[in-house]
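Readers of this paper often ask what the protein records in our data store actually look like. Such a record has a labelled line for the sequence and another for the backbone structure tokens. Nothing more is needed to write down the fold, since each code stands for a local backbone conformation. The remainder of this section carries one protein's record, kept here as part of the documentation.
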Amino acid sequence: MAEEFLQRTWAEIDLDRIAHNYRILRRCAGDSARFLGVVKANAYGCGAIQVARKLEEVGADYLAVACLDEVRELRDAGISLPILILGYTPPEMTPQLIRYDVTQSVSSEADAAEYSHQAAACGGTLKIHINVDTGMTRLGFSVRGDFFCGSVEAIARTCALPNLEAEGIFTHMAVSDEPDADSETYTREQFALFTATIDALEKKDCHFAIHHCANSGATAMYPEMALDMVRPGLVLYGAGDLAAQLGLKPVMRLKTTVYSTRHIAADSSVSYGRTFRTTAPTRTGVLPIGYADGLFRCLSNRMSVMTVQGPAPVLGRICMDMCIVDLTTLDQVQVGDTVEIFGDNQSVNDLAAMAGTIPYELMCAVSRRIPRIYLENGSVIERRLYL
């Protein structure tokens, strides 16, 4: 990668922190539970290949992605860990699922029958995990209320289909990361319903090697729900409200530089729409980062960036490729200085709250044109530009 890319805007990905967070979360899960690392969406913007390699190195047991294209990327890079696809794959792509040695989540008997047919046609066996809907109301065999008995029967029939290996069964917690009493009650209801489903299936001689339901929130807050495997996502990357409580460290640091500085007079309008006007002579700086890079426009006139001398408020609207900050009281900040958008000095959680969203969205929004700089032991080991 050309050096000039590094001097615009970049994201530092600390792989030692992936290992640190993994060790803490592994202790939360206990000795008997497997560890599945969620690396979908390019590992929440951090780089799926590099994160998967680190997880494989430190001893993770499984990975999870959203789709077959994400599997291809990992397998082509030499990642050999088992991979679970959490989303839907068209049944006609079953031969590729088998060729890439993928575990496919199954949410209905009809889908399972199609996978079975396609697997038989290509002479292979597809490994599957049964997705049980206990209250997320998104995907899966619904087992709430009057649907329980019918869905148990459907799951049992699914497990008996030829050319399918039903290795696992799982559900997804809707509010396990929420601390209020109502959310705790709902989470425990989901868990009880999931275990009741497992018990009912075992009575039908339907057994699974892996039972899992502990996403980030459950891994952190409900260790009794670890079962055979935990699958933390956001907390693995040191983001979210639970991360700091567990001693997890932010993996991604988004940084840019001061591109130019200038002095402007009082009563000057700044940026598009003239939404900010100076009330006194002001020293401003232009940063080469904007909403096309993942810096949300809704943070205009609201957020600050962190300089070597302290916070610098954003003035006016964030543009597609640039934004303007107030350096009036930061006389030591000069052209070429590094500025942190989020990281160790400014939490992505705080920015997300300011934007009215969640940390996932800010991390996943970091654009492909932003180079990722991978660090181990404080040194750069790889530079990757996804364009």
Summary: DSSP finds 13 helices and 21 strands in the chain.
